[in-house]
Task: inverse folding
C-alpha cells in the first residue's frame, strides 16, 4: 500500500542525502524534538532559514520535505502541502542540472507526498493531477534506468508505477476516467464553452467552442454545460482553500446547490442513458465534496440505467464499490460490488478476444491485474480493522 510514510522513505532510496552539515545538525535536533513532542514553529522556521541560505538547492528542497513529514504527522496538512509545493518547484528546476536521476527521482517523490496532503485536505482534483505528474516522472525514470542498463532500478520503478496504478484505482476519480475509454456507438465527442451557457433546445447537438480537449458524452448541451460549471466551481473552491493561510476545508456550497438542481431536473427531461451519465457526474462531485453516502446512493441509482454488462456499467460499478468503501458510506456489501465489477470486466475481455480486438483486450488485461491487486489490498485493510 502506498501512503505518506512509505513514500517519504523513498526520497534518498538510491542516492545519499543532500543535507549539508549545518542543515543535518538542525534537522536532527528538530526531529528529536518532534519525537518528544516539544518542537515549535520557531524550531521549524530556524531549520528552514538555514536551508534557504544554503548554496545547494537540493539541500534546501530536502529540508522542506523533512519539515513536511513532521507537519504531516501532526495533522498540519495545509502547511505540509505548502512546504512540499516549494520543494517540488526547486527539484523541478534542478532536473537536468544534477547528474544522474537524483533530482527527477526526488521530484517524483515530493509530488507524491504533495498529493497526499492535497487528498487529506479534500482537494481531490489537485491530488489526482499531482499524482499523475508523479507517475509521468516515474515512467521517465524507468525509461532512463532501462537505457542505462540499471536492471534493479528499472524493476523498482516498474513496481512503484504498478503500486501507484493500484492506489489510483482505489479512488473514485481514476475509474471515472475509464468509463469513457471504450464507449458504445451512441456516444459522441463534445466540448462546450467554458463560461457561456449554450443557447437553444436540449439535445440540439450544440457546437462547441473553447474547452481544451474533448469528452465522450451522451449529455445534452445543457447538462454538459452544468457539469462543466460544477467541475469549475469545485476546482475553484479547492484552489481557494489550498492558497489560503487558514487551516480550513473548501467551501463547496455553490457546487453542492448546482448538483442538487441538476439532480432535481433529471426525472423530467432526459433519456435513460443520459440520466445514467448525469447521475455518475453528480455522484463524483458529491464525493469530492465529502458527501460520500449520498454519492454512493446517487451512483447506485445510475447503474440500472447503463446498458447491462456494458463497459460503462461495469466501470461505474467498480467506481460505486470504491464510493461505498469511503468514510461515512457504511455499505456492508462494498467488497461484493467490486468483485462483481471485476468478474464482469473479465467477461468484457473475453468479448474483446472474440472480436479479435487486441488493443481492447490488452487494456482489460491491465485493468484486471490492477483490480486484483486493489481487491487484495482492500481485503487486507478490512481484515486489519477487525
Result:
Amino acid at each position: 500500500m502506498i501512503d505518506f510514510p512509505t513514500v517519504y522513505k523513498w526520497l534518498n532510496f538510491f542516492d545519499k542525502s543532500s543535507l549539508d552539515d549545518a542543515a543535518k545538525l538542525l534537522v536532527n535536533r528538530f526531529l528529536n524534538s518532534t519525537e518528544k513532542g516539544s518542537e515549535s514553529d520557531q524550531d521549524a522556521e530556524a531549520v528552514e532559514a538555514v536551508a534557504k541560505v544554503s548554496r545547494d538547492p537540493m539541500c534546501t528542497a530536502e529540508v522542506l520535505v523533512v519539515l513536511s513529514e513532521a507537519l504531516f504527522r501532526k495533522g498540519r496538512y495545509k502547511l505540509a502541502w505548502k512546504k512540499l509545493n516549494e520543494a517540488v518547484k526547486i527539484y523541478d528546476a534542478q532536473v537536468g542540472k544534477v547528474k544522474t536521476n537524483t533530482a527527477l527521482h526526488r521530484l517524483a517523490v515530493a509530488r507524491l507526498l504533495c498529493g497526499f496532503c492535497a487528498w487529506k485536505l479534500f482537494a481531490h482534483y489537485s491530488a489526482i493531477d499531482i499524482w499523475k505528474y508523479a507517475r509521468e516522472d516515474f515512467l521517465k525514470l524507468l525509461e532512463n534506468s532501462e537505457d542505462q542498463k540499471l536492471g534493479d532500478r528499472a524493476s523498482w520503478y516498474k513496481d512503484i508505477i504498478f503500486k501507484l496504478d493500484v492506489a489510483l484505482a482505489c479512488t473514485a476519480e481514476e475509474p471515472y476516467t475509464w468509463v469513457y475509454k471504450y464507449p458504445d456507438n451512441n456516444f459522441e465527442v463534445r466540448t462546450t464553452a467554458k463560461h457561456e451557457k449554450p443557447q437553444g433546445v436540449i439535445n440540439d447537438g450544440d457546437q462547441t467552442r473553447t474547452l481544451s480537449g474533448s469528452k465522450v458524452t451522451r449529455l445534452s448541451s445543457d447538462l454538459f454545460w452544468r457539469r462543466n460549471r460544477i467541475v469549475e466551481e469545485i476546482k475553484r473552491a479547492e484552489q481557494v482553500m489550498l492558497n489560503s493561510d487558514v487551516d480550513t476545508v473548501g467551501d463547496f456550497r455553490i457546487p453542492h446547490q448546482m448538483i442538487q438542481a441538476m439532480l432535481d431536473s433529471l426525472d423530467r427531461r432526459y433519456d435513460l442513458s443520459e440520466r445514467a451519465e448525469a447521475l455518475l457526474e453528480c455522484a463524483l462531485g458529491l464525493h469530492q465534496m465529502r458527501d460520500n453516502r449520498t454519492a454512493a446512493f446517487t451512483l447506485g441509482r445510475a447503474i440500472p440505467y447503463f446498458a447491462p454488462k456494458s463497459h460503462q456499467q461495469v466501470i461505474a460499478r467498480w467506481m460505486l464499490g470504491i464510493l461505498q468503501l469511503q468514510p461515512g458510506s457504511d455499505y456492508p456489501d462494498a467488497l461484493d460490488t467490486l468483485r462483481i465489477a471485476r468478474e464482469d470486466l473479465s467477461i468484457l475481455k473475453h468479448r474483446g478476444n472474440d472480436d479479435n480486438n487486441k488493443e481492447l483486450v490488452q487494456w482489460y488485461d491491465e485493468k484486471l491485474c490492477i483490480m486484483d491487486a486493489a481487491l487484495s489490498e482492500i481485503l487486507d485493510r478490512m481484515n486489519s480493522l477487525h
Summary: The mean pLDDT is 86. The two ends are 18 Å apart (CA to CA).
